[in-house]
Design brief:
The protein has about 250 residues and is mostly helical. About 65% of the residues lie in helices and about 0% in strands. It folds into 2 domains: about 20-135, no CATH class; about 140-248, no CATH class. Helix 7 (about 145-170) packs across helix 11 (about 235-245). It contains 11 helices and no strands. It has helices at about 20-25, 35-55, 60-75, 90-105, 105-110, 125-135, 145-170, 175-185, 190-200, 205-225, 235-245.
């Protein structure tokens, strides 16, 4: 037994897999350190789209929080994730479908009454989530379409966070913050000139660096998207779907 009563997961040693289809299968194993890590990875990326979906379905904030927490616990406790089949659709579709079934079941209501009663709890920042939800523009789209939009935003956020982590690890965190507006589409010539003077370089160098960052961002984005797919050939269609979801 490992510290804290958690056993090691069966299978080979090494780092926890980067692909989500692998991660969710690890998360389905009984109490184990890698399972907990896999669940935490999933929650950090995808809890808000699920929470916002529940709110769009007219659940009150506290109920939406309880349902979201109970749902991710349900994935672990029932080994439901073993039913995830990458050949039958996107991971986001699997997750949303499971949540809809969960909400419709009597089990969901029973679980939300057991707050802290020995049930695995996903710690969510309800205050942050509700503020974000309330500040979103009023939308007439269906909760399902909005789920896809939130999923797309979560994907872009994960991409940017990964790029920022790379820059921080290479000792260029400050440079990343300086160049972030340009990375996000601010092509202001005067601003580039000012930035070049402040950093003691040329405007041409600033533009080259930003172009390289944009290229790396696109590479990471494709990688993040591929993590939720079974076939790498589906990356382009999934990217097109997510970009369309952002425009809708």
């Amino acid at each position: 037994m490992s510290p804290g009563g958690l056993r090691e997961c069966s299978g080979g040693s090494g780092s926890f897999p980067s692909t989500h289809w692998s991660a969710i299968r690890i998360a389905g194993q009984d109490a184990c350190a890698k399972g907990d890590a896999a669940l935490a990875e999933l929650c950090l990326k995808y809890w808000y789209p699920i929470y916002a979906f529940a709110r769009r379905k007219n659940f009150q904030p506290a109920d939406a929080q309880d349902l979201t927490q109970a749902f991710f616990a349900h994935l672990i406790e029932t080994h439901l994730v073993h039913k995830a089949d990458p050949d039958k659709g996107r991971f986001r579709s699997f997750l949303l479908g499971c949540f809809q079934v969960f909400v419709a079941s009597e089990f969901a209501h029973a679980q939300t009454q057991k707050r802290g009663g020995g049930v695995f709890t996903v710690l969510l920042d309800l205050h942050e989530a509700e503020l974000r939800f309330l500040h979103e523009p009023h939308a007439t789209a269906s909760p399902e379409k909005l789920f896809d939009r939130h999923w797309a935003v979560a994907t872009l956020d994960a991409t940017l966070a990964r790029l920022e982590s790379e820059m921080r690890q290479s000792g260029r965190a400050d440079l990343f913050q300086e160049l972030l507006p340009g990375l996000q589409g601010d092509d202001s010539g005067p601003r580039y000139a000012e930035l070049a003077r402040r950093l003691g370089t040329t405007e041409a160098t600033i533009r080259v660096t930003i172009n390289r960052l944009r290229f790396r961002y696109r590479e990471i984005l494709r990688s993040v998207v591929a993590e939720t797919l079974n076939d790498p050939l589906d990356v382009e269609s999934e990217l097109a779907h997510l970009m369309a979801a952002l425009r809708d």
